[in-house]
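Hi support team,

I submitted a single chain yesterday and got back a structure, but I'm not sure I'm reading the C-alpha cell output correctly. Could someone confirm the output below corresponds to the sequence I sent? I've pasted both exactly as they appear in my results page.

Thanks,
R.
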Amino acid sequence: MTLLRAPRELAAMTVLLSALALSSSAAFCSAFVPGGARSFGLAGVRTTVSSQLSMSADAAASASYQKVFVAGGSKGVGKMIVDKLISSGTASEVVALVRSEEAEKALSGINGVATVRGDAFVYKDVEGAMDGCDAAITTLGGAVDDDGKRIDYEGNSNVIEAAGILGVTRVLLVTSVGCGSSREAAPPSVFEVLKDVLSAKERAENVLIKYYTNTNWTIVRPAGLKSEPATGTAILTEDPMAIGTVHREDVADLVLKALTSNKTQKKVLTAVDTEITSAANTGGASWEAFSLV
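Hi R., thanks for writing in. Yes, this is the structure output for that exact sequence:
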C-alpha cells in the first residue's frame, strides 16, 4: 500500500482492516482541469470502526441528501454544483469548505449553504467541515502548496479519507479525461502539458478505487471544459476513449444526476458533449451514453 506514507498511518489502516475482517467472519490544458491515508489516528479508528462495520458495502445512492459536503465549491464546476444541489432540492443543506474570506462571503449568501473556512491541504480542516454530512463531492484541482504538493492529490485524498473515517459512504470525485484508463484519450500535446496534474488526480482516483471498497463512490472525468451555458446534450459514458468538449454547467448537472443514481456505484464515467465540435474530436465520433435510470 504505497500510498500510505507514514508507519502510524499504515498501522491504523491495519487496525481498521483487521476489525472489518473480524466482523465479516462473525456475520487537459487548463480546460481539462475542473475548477495513503494521513491522519488515521488510532483513536479515530477506534471511535468509527463500529459504525463502519454496520454499514452496507453496497450503500445505495439517495434521491436527496440532508447535508452534502463540497470541496472546490468556490468557483467553476464546484460552484455550479453547490448552486444546483440547493436549487434542485437534492440537498437540504450544503457545507462548503472555503479558503478565502471572499469565497466565504459569496457562498454564505446562498440560502441553504453553510461555509467553513479551512484548507483542503489540511486533513483536520476537511474532516471537521465534513462531520455530519451524508455525501461528499470534490472538484479540487489546480492549487500547489509551498512544498510543491498538488491539491489534485493531497486535497482530494483528504476528502476521500475523511469520508472513510466519518462513515460518509457516498463520495463523488471529479477529475479529468487523461487520468487512468482514459490516458490514451487525451491528445498527446495536452497530456504532456498536464501530465503532473493528471498524475496527481489519478493518484486520488486510485486511493478511492483500491482502498475504499465499502464506499459508494463515483468518478466523473470531464473532457475539455468551456464556460458557456448548458446545452443539455452532454452525456456520461463508460468509454475511456471518449474525448471532446463539455460545458461546465452541463458537468454540474451530470454530477448531480450521478450522485442520485443507483446505477453509478463504483463507476468511472467520462462527461462529454458529442454535439459540440472540438479540435480533440474532429472526426465527430460518438459514444454510448451511460444509463442513469
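A quick pointer for reading it: Helices lie at 7-26, 42-53, 76-87, 101-108, 123-130, 151-166, 188-211, 248-260. Let us know if anything else looks off.

Best,
Support desk
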